[in-house]
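[job 4471] stage=fold_predict status=RUNNING
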Amino acid sequence: MPPQASARSPFAGCLILILALLMLVCLIGFTAWMPFRQATEIEKFTKAAPTPLAVDPIEGNETKVNALVERLEIFRTELNDAAKPARIELTADDLNLAIAAFPQVEQLRKSFRIREITADALVIDICYQLNGRPRLTKDGEEGFMTSDPRYLIGTIKGQPHLARRELALKVNALDVPGSAVPDGFMEHFSTLRLFERYVKDPVLGPAMGQMTRAEIKDGKMVLARVPGENPPETVSNATFQQGSNRFLTVLGIVACIFLAFAATMVIVGIRRQKRREKEGLEN
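[job 4471] inference complete, writing structure tokens
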């Protein structure tokens, strides 16, 4: 009597499992490797230590500060009347004084300084902190992982970028002495949302939301509201995070390839197993 041909070969199932596990390990490894790769590239054009920029003194400039506060308050009051135009012109000195005096832009002190305003751009010296190489946290630090800071030291050229309820900085050029900045980083760095945290602020939020223009004109930064003019669209996270989204897209593609491969191997294994079982029954 011929033996029952229902025995199943364990090799096909083991091979599928091994290949699936290898793909999963590769996917996890790729995900873990990418931050270190990005950190290595960032280290090529950044510094480990900051070079703080000068901050205008408040002492002795009280008259200028008070005058600037009065002008800004007049502008905010004008914005409340939708039927009338509102406009304020700010020089490089005005902007540097605002960075020194106003708590809303405290994070820019020693890291942003307006060098000049040309016919078409804000020229800004920066010492901008970035996240560097990932590492495990030490005692006293929060969380499991952190990163060592890196500092982008150079000069940017940009323009004020107004979107509904948000004033941002559109970066057109970045000059880092002695280093070349990759295009991929520039895509991520193209829009700095300096006032994102104030979109819901009870004072600054409504003021930004009522403006319809932010531009450079005659060597000054001009903020305005023109009656009947619609404000631009909202700044989206997709625009701000183009560089990050590119990484996520690659990661998603790899994940889809892994899943498709694993599913294909499983289907092939099942069909092969059924075919063998059918052939065994026929014999």
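[job 4471] summary: Residues 46-236 form one domain.
[job 4471] exit 0
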